């Protein structure tokens, strides 16, 4: 979701940046989330709602746990975290959720990740399992490939946290990144209500690296964009996009910030763009510390070589974790790749990625 848009947006948008995150009462689930101050959060935590934890029976499978049910979780404080493995907002939230799961597991907290896919390749159980192992996510995960749990909650965002008390009532919800102190204070409050002792008042301070590092908000002037015609913005290759058709594209000489273009023979589909043959490039003007690209070979088991340039030069110290200083990398699976992490000072740049093999499919670009 772009920072300028309302929280009530397309269900398929990877959720809000930290500045739009809001911890909200459950009564606001159907409308725009209204932020609460920290005192308001803690005071209202005593107020129950009539909404119980929905059924988890819609899961098509479970990771790290046998199937869990709302009934079996009674007596536990439950934190339900909706995620999808290509969402940068969730990746930056994860260090906190991971730390809470570990810190409070012996105090009665159960963290459940509900993996609901955004892109088609995220529906495949094998891809979800591989992502959970590599990221890693060690707490129980309900694989929600058919979006049944998503619909049961009436959820609309990644990431989304639902705080459930020991009586099975949803007490609060939080969309997007941020407000980690308030969220942990609420977990502590619910655990004390449930009878846990020695919960303490100290807060986690996770060390987050790579894609999990907090965004550089003061320099974040580029918003997530999609590379399929269904939701893309600011596509500048001459002649525009040819929907669902192979077309030979060329790059414009100039590319404005937050605009993008293609060169080479590509097929732009509704949800992504595939390099049909030969080599091809994507160029993107951006202003942010980090740049991430969701991409991978369209054929399972294949690999695609690529090279990244920043203002026409190898990225050097601005290389992200998935390339070397020369900008060289290999895409071996469909996932989010961190390609740029600028060193200070952060400024407007032109990003280019050249694919040296055909068959790559690209889906979205995000920033941090």
Characterize the structure shown.
The chain is of the alpha+beta class. The chain folds into two domains: 18-212, Glutaredoxin (3-Layer(aba) Sandwich), CATH 3.40.30; 217-367, Sandwich (Jelly Rolls). The chain has helices at 38-44, 88-104, 125-134, 148-153, 180-193, and strands spanning 22-25, 61-63, 77-83, 109-115, 141-143, 160-164, 170-175, 225-226, 246-249, 260-268, 273-286, 290-297, 304-310, 328-331, 335-341, 349-355, 360-367. The strands form two sheets. Strands 8, 9, 10, 11, 12, 13, 14, 15, 16 and 17 form a ten-stranded antiparallel β-sheet that branches. Strand 4 (109-115), helix 3 and strand 5 form a beta-alpha-beta unit. The longest helix is centred in the first third of the chain and has 17 residues, at 88-104.
Short description:
Helices cover 15% and strands 29% of the residues.
Specify the CATH architecture of the largest domain: 3-Layer(aba) Sandwich
The major beta sheet can be summarized as: 10 strands, antiparallel
**How much of the polypeptide forms β-strand, as a percent range?**
25-35%
Terminal-residue CA separation: 13 Å
Helix content: 10-25%
List the helices and strands and how they pair.
Elements (H helix, E strand, L loop, with lengths): L21 E4 L12 H7 L16 E3 L13 E7 L4 H17 L4 E7 L9 H10 L6 E3 L4 H6 L6 E5 L5 E6 L4 H14 L31 E2 L19 E4 L10 E9 L4 E14 L3 E8 L6 E7 L17 E4 L3 E7 L7 E7 L4 E8 L1
Parallel strand pairs: 3-4, 4-5
Antiparallel strand pairs: 1-7, 2-5, 3-6, 6-7, 8-17, 9-10, 10-11, 11-16, 11-17, 12-15, 12-17, 13-14, 13-16
């Amino acid at each position: 979701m772009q920072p300028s848009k309302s929280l009530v947006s397309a269900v398929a948008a990877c959720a809000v940046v930290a500045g739009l995150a809001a911890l909200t009462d459950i009564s606001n689930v159907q409308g725009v989330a209204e932020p609460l101050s920290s005192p308001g959060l803690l005071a209202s935590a005593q107020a129950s709602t009539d909404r119980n934890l929905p059924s988890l029976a819609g899961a098509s499978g479970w990771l790290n746990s046998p199937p869990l049910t709302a009934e079996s979780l009674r007596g536990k404080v439950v934190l339900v975290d909706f995620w999808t493995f290509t969402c940068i907002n969730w990746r930056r939230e994860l260090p906190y959720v991971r730390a809470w799961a570990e810190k409070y597991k012996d105090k009665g907290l159960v963290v459940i990740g509900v993996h609901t896919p955004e892109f088609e390749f995220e529906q495949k159980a094998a891809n979800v399992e591989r992502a959970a192992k590599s990221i890693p996510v060690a707490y129980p995960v309900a694989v929600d490939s058919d979006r049944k749990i998503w619909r049961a909650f009436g959820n609309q965002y990644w990431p989304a946290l639902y705080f459930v008390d020991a009586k099975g009532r949803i007490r609060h919800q939080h969309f997007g990144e941020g407000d980690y102190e308030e969220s942990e204070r609420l977990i502590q409050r619910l655990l004390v209500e449930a009878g846990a002792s020695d919960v303490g008042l100290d807060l986690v301070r996770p060390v987050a690296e790579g894609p999990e590092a907090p965004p550089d908000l003061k320099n974040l002037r580029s918003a997530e964009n999609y590379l399929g015609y269904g939701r893309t913005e600011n596509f500048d290759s001459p002649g525009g996009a040819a929907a669902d058709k192979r077309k030979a594209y060329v790059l414009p000489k100039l590319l404005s910030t937050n605009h993008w273009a293609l060169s080479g023979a590509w097929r732009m589909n509704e949800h992504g763009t595939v390099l049909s043959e030969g080599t091809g490039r994507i160029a993107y003007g951006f202003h942010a510390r980090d740049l991430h690209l969701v991409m991978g070979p369209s054929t399972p088991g294949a690999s695609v070589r690529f090279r990244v340039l920043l203002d026409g030069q190898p990225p050097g110290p601005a290389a992200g974790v998935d390339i070397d200083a020369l900008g060289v990398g290999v895409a071996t699976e469909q996932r989010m790749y961190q390609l740029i992490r600028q060193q200070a000072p952060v400024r407007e740049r032109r990003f280019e990625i050249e694919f040296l093999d055909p068959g790559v499919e690209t889906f979205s670009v995000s920033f941090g």
